[in-house]
From TrEMBL:
Residues 19-180 form the Glycosyltransferase subfamily 4-like N-terminal domain. The lineage of its organism: Bacteria, Candidatus Portnoyibacteriota. GO terms for molecular function: glycosyltransferase activity. This is Glycosyltransferase subfamily 4-like N-terminal domain-containing protein. Residues 200-331 form the Glycosyl transferase family domain. It comes from the Bacteria. InterPro entries: Glyco_trans_1, Glyco_trans_4-like_N.
Amino acid sequence: MEQNKRKKVLILITQSSLGGAQKYVFDLATGLDKQKYEVAVAAGGDGELFERLKTADIQIFKRKCLKRPIFPPCDIEAYLKLKKLFIEWQPDILHLNSSKVSILGSLAARNLPIKVVYTVHGSVFQPPFSSLMSKLFLWLEKWTAKYKNKIICVSENDRQLWLKYNVAPAEKLVTIHNGLKENLDFLPKDEARKEILGNAYEKFKNYQIVGSIGYFYPDKNLETLIKAANLILNTLASKDKKIVFAVIGSGPQEESLKLKVKSLKLTDKILFLGAVPEAHKYLKAFDVFAMPSVKEGLPYAILQAMAGGTPIIASDVGGIPEMITDNFNGF
């Protein structure tokens, strides 16, 4: 196909800090056939996603006005800048990821000759949002669904939720589960522990490690992991056992979570290991992988833990039950 005949695909996501939805965007942007598609990605912030896309030679557009919280002055600016981008870059296909940008992006694409696809990475009108915020997002999703040609749900749970609340007609909805590339690289257990624990390796190398990976947002519910750790570490049955909890990641709640751990006097038993590139490589350092989320789509971290053979304990939310059967391949 001639260069000037390639379909132009513009992929949008609200935030550029790396998480599951950003991995999805990166895999899609780099996986499309360059002979058939010209691909670009627009996102808010200045996160690691941009660096990875640059390295992969994918065109990027930074729109700092794109932010997760609702803030009308910034949202209006984002809408206007997105509309300008659509008119100037002239995509054939607009692929929206995350609720905020799906609303702004679909409105900005109205009356333009663009096919609009939206991938739902977990329904935003579910917890942890307040009842008022959930109702607002439900209304916004219903209003803007008419401007989307196809809506991809990464779990059947999300598709059923959209049908239950009449967010969009059934013919617009399709379930396509997330997937992983074959032959993921995992470090052997001891090597993974050495790298991720650093100076603490000698102290904890023979401990049982309960680990988690995620961005520190309320929907990841890491406070519950800390409460569970406190209960486990302070029971008579566990006090003499070598158990430590470790969390890979960062985010807005980091300081408050660290203060909570400090107040429980558990700073030597609940370790914050920071955000690391390709965190999945360290999954074999954990004896158990925990995901206490209150909102999920179909999390890559669960798929990666399964691929690495790490035992899993996870919340019964979103698409997790489509991967984990209780007492069969996890809890």
